[in-house]
Specification:
By secondary structure, this protein is an alpha/beta fold. Helix content is 32%, strand content 18%. The protein has a 7-stranded parallel beta sheet with strand order 8-7-6-9-10-11-12, sandwiched between helices. It has a 5-stranded parallel beta sheet with strand order 2-1-3-4-5. Helix 10 links the parallel strand 10 and strand 11. The radius of gyration is 25 Å and the shape is elongated. The termini are close together. Bound molecules: nicotinamide-adenine-dinucleotide and 3-phosphoglyceric acid. Nicotinamide-adenine-dinucleotide (NAD) binds next to helix 5 and helix 7. It is an enzyme of class 1 (oxidoreductase). InterPro entries: ACT-like_dom_sf (IPR045865), ACT_dom (IPR002912), AHAS_small-like_ACT (IPR054480), D-iso_2-hydroxyacid_DH_PdxB (IPR050418), D-isomer_2_OHA_DH_cat_dom (IPR006139), D-isomer_DH_CS (IPR029753), D-isomer_DH_CS1 (IPR029752), D-isomer_DH_NAD-bd (IPR006140).
């Protein structure tokens, strides 16, 4: 293990929201001993106070890393989203602070897809209402409103990693699969692209949402879209709470236009276990409510812990930003020489030549240089063979280059 300029045991890692023990073990095995875990998300004031002292923060979907919170994070060098969604992080603000964010884009895909398929079957059979009646002492044995999944059409909105998996599983039950996506997507199996969202809504017996939270998906299923669905449709939302107008859905469930729904994500979710859900859907027998557990299986959480922690360790140890969601991606080879310097800057003309001037003025040869830019930021990694004093001087001179956001001597 290469010795780093800033000792690994001094790097503070804060993991929130009950991130899996597998993440802690991954950090510890890599020499990061200061790992603090917290079972919940933190209130904003506490988060601001805690984030000021840490170098790496790990979160799940609940913690909001806003620009104001990130402004307090003076030492923070990387963010790990131990989940798929990254909408809870102000990614632009993080990038302009020189902080890459990493996530686990596939690790809980299967868990969500399995839950969605199970919910589709339960809804088509009217099981939520029947179960609720039995719990209250009722008994209503009837086939009324109860259907097989075979031959029914499932409409998948957002045909990405999860949407495609739902489609494959649904086909194995004999369902017809329709999908709608803003990107051109290759169909898996016999799935067919709908002409547009309205076409999908008009033809589906079950509509399931698998889009990310973006300005375009905010309230994309409102009163008008619900009215455009078949009477007796079932709606599943395991994407983000902002995607559905929850009041319009509650009204349609009460009127019976939507026969049943399964909802895993909410516009406002409780901060942690033990707090109650406040939603107009609470108390409706024809709704399966789950506490944002689409990706919460032991298998998924274990894998996510390892995957995201490994990406954070790699960035911290080696500078690699491969698969960062908000940052120029650089994959780096090991460097046999003595020092590796990182320079993160605003992407404005002339910065690279000023960086190279620093090296030529100090008479230091560059062994290797890696540069990637995006619209906002440039990330340069420079390998040199030189003494510790020169590396310190180089870093000081690099910090003076106009446009510099952040520098590090990695080792
Ligand atoms: N409930 C949970 O626990 C849970 C778990 C994992 C992911 N999620 C949510 O599910 C979302 C989808 O996950 P994924 O891994 O499939 O993501 P993905 O990026 O692989 O797929 C999303 C798809 O949606 C499409 N899309 C984007 N905007 C759209 C629009 N306006 N209209 C139609 N299609 C649009 C994209 O082109 C893409 O194909 C995540 O962003 C996350 O918010 C929830
Ligand atoms: O984006 C995700 O992966 C899901 O919404 C799961 O989030 P969670 O880690 O908070 O359960």
């Amino acid at each position: 293990m290469q010795k780093t300029s800033y000792p690994r045991q001094d790097i503070r890692v804060l993991l929130l929201e009950g991130i899996s023990e597998s993440a802690v073990q991954t950090f510890r095995a890599a020499g990061y001993t200061q790992v603090e875990v917290h079972p919940k998300s933190l209130p904003e004031d506490e988060l601001k106070a805690r984030i000021a002292d840490v170098h790496i923060v790990g979160i799940r979907s609940r913690t909001q890393l806003t620009a104001e919170v990130l402004a307090e994070a003076r030492r923070l060098m990387a963010v790990g989203c131990f989940c798929i969604g990254t909408n809870q992080v102000d990614l632009d603000a993080a990038e302009l602070a020189g902080i890459p964010a990493f996530n686990a884009p596939y690790s809980n895909t299967r868990s969500v897809a399995e839950l969605v398929l199970a919910e589709a079957i339960m809804l088509l059979r009217g099981i939520p209402q029947k179960s609720a009646q039995c719990h209250r002492g009722g008994w209503s044995k009837s086939a009324e409103g109860s259907h097989e999944a075979r031959g029914k059409t499932i409409g998948i909105v957002g045909y990405g990693h999860i949407g495609t998996q739902v489609g494959v599983l649904a086909e194995s039950l004999g369902m017809q699969v329709l999908f709608h996506d803003i990107e051109a997507k290759l169909s898996l199996g016999n799935a067919r692209a709908a002409a547009d969202l309205a076409d999908l809504l008009a033809r589906s017996d079950v509509v399931t949402l698998h889009v990310p939270e973006t300005p375009a998906t905010r309230m994309m299923i409102g009163e008008q879209q619900i009215a455009a669905m078949k009477p007796g449709v079932h709606l599943i939302n395991a994407s983000r709470g902002s995607v559905v107008d929850i009041d319009a859905l509650a009204a349609a469930l009460q009127s019976g236009h939507v026969a049943g729904a399964a909802v895993d994500v909410f516009p406002v979710e409780p901060k942690g276990n033990g707090e109650s859900l406040d939603s107009p859907l609470v108390g409706l027998d024809n709704v399966i409510l789950t506490p944002h557990v689409g990706g919460s299986t032991l298998e998924a959480q274990d894998n996510i812990g390892i995957e995201v922690a490994a990406k954070l360790v790699r960035y911290s140890d080696n500078g690699s930003t491969l698969s960062a969601v908000n940052f120029p991606e650089v994959t780096l080879p090991e460097h046999e020489g003595s020092h590796r310097l990182l320079h993160i800057h605003r992407n404005v003309p002339g910065v690279l030549s000023r960086i190279n001037e620093v090296f030529s003025q100090q008479g230091i040869n560059i062994d290797g240089q890696f540069l990637r830019t995006d619209a906002k930021v440039g990330y340069v990694v420079i390998d040199v063979s030189t003494g510790d004093t020169e590396a310190g001087k180089l870093r000081a001179a690099l910090m003076d280059v106009p446009g510099t956001l952040r520098t590090r001597v990695l080792y």
